[in-house]
Amino acid sequence: MTQPELTHIAEPRNGIPPLVHDSIEWASNTLSSGHGPFAIDTERAMGIRYSNRAYLIQIHREGVGTFLIDPVGIEDRLETLATVLGEDTWILHSAFQDLPSLRELGLEPPAVYDTEMAGLLLGFERVSLQSEIAELLGYELAKEHSFSDWSARPLSASLRSYAALDVEFLHELSSELSKKLEEAGRMEWFEQECEEIRLRQPKEPIEEAWRRVARSFNIRDRRALGMLDALWTERENIARERDIAIGRVISNKSLAHLASMKPRSLEDLRRSPVLRSRTGRRDTKRYWKALAPVWSLPNDALPPRDGSKNEEILSSPTRWDTLAPEGAERWTLIRPAVIARAEELGIRQDILLKPLIQKELAWKGWRSIDNIPDILADLGARPWQIENVVPSIVSAIKNGA
Predict the structure, then answer these.
(1) Comparing C-alpha atoms, which of 384, 394, 400, 401 is closest to residue 185?
(2) Does the model's pTM come out above 0.70?
(3) To bridge 124 with a disulfide, which of 103, 119, 149, 388 should be the other Cys (CB 3.0-4.6 Å)?
């Protein structure tokens, strides 16, 4: 079947908006005179800067058009904008990525419409903003600045055009998605998911995150683990101080190499090939200052080889055969049941029920199968998920008994 030809969109229909900074009150008042939901997006500098702050906020509202707001330096002048944005629903694509940086600025949505989640619940094969707009609206957006440094100023016309196009078609897209959700009988599912996204709390930092690197590079020596912990902390400090992405300071692979070699002196550390670059040499003394105290730690003060934070649940259930045989048996029933039901619905299994919830249900078990809906609710499953997945799980349990 021949695919319909897409209409290429190179820039916003009403021209490329200027950057709003000093005139934020005017922009806020103008947005207030529009009508309907706000189409919103942000641009950050992930992979470039340490922080996850928004360096640009794009807002489109019917009747007034698109505004590109530079919030840096005017964070204390956004009260009017916050009040205006509280008037109606926010339409976002992959809202959970943008909401934290918007909340840092005191901007809070009264309701959320997530176009990515709509696509996921409809079983779309591709759910990027460009893909959904192409499939439902027939437009091909010019998208060549995904990895640009949005913290740099000034912003070129091409960057502003790219940013404006991210909100230009969200109203039209949401209208088409709503029609399909209603036709599929999944609008209630969508509303539950959007409310969960709106209320979702930021994830707690992972305890001993350096252990993932230790496992990846098979570091088992306890003093080397202590050194990896120290290096990890020092890299974080450097990245925060300089406001650069952690990976731009030194890579995980390089940290693992330095920890594994267990340097005995500053000169020993300097001989490492991973620190011979200009960037590496810059921080060698700091790394040694972090590493040196690890040599004076007694053995019982060094990190244990295995972490202590419920790693059984977070790691692969293939390990459960020895850790928790009953949990492993429950997993062999739950997992296929969820996958089979997701296939029947034409959606991804992780959308039907998060893998972590599946693992926790298998790990903890239940007193009676009648308790499974309450257990899933306590674990964070939404009503539509419970309604759809519990019969399949219960059936698998009964057949496997």
Answers:
(1) 384
(2) yes
(3) 119
Phi, psi at residue 42, to the nearest 5°? -130, 160
Are residue 297 and residue 316 in the same domain, yes or no?
A: no
CA–CA distances in Å: residue 213 to residues 66, 254, 304, 339? 43, 10, 15, 30
- What are the structure tokens assigned to 73, written together? 């330096």
Which residue pairs, CB below 8 angstroms and at least 24 apart, start in 339-346? 340/392, 341/388, 341/389, 341/392, 345/123, 345/388, 346/123
Q: Is the peptide bond before 154 cis (omega within 30 degrees of 0)?
A: yes
Are 359 and 290 in the same domain?
no
Q: Distance between CA 315 and CA 317 in Å, rounded?
A: 6
pLDDT beyond 70 at 145: no
Q: Are residues 119 and 217 in the same domain?
A: no
Residues pairing with 38 in the sheet: 61, 90
Q: What CATH number is attached to the domain comprising 339?
A: 1.10.150.80
Q: Let me know if residue 1 belongs to a domain.
A: no
> What does the mean pLDDT of the chain come to?
93
Residue 53's nearest CA partner among 116, 124, 104 is: 104
Give the residue with greater pLDDT, 321 vs 238: 238
Least confident range of 62-71, 235-244, 280-289: 280-289
pLDDT at 3 > cutoff 80? no
Specify the CATH number for the domain of residue 173: 3.30.420.10
Residue 68 lies in a domain: yes
Q: What is the pLDDT of residues 200-231, one digit of tens each?
A: 988 888 889 999 999 999 999 999 999 999 99
Determine the pLDDT at residue 335: 96
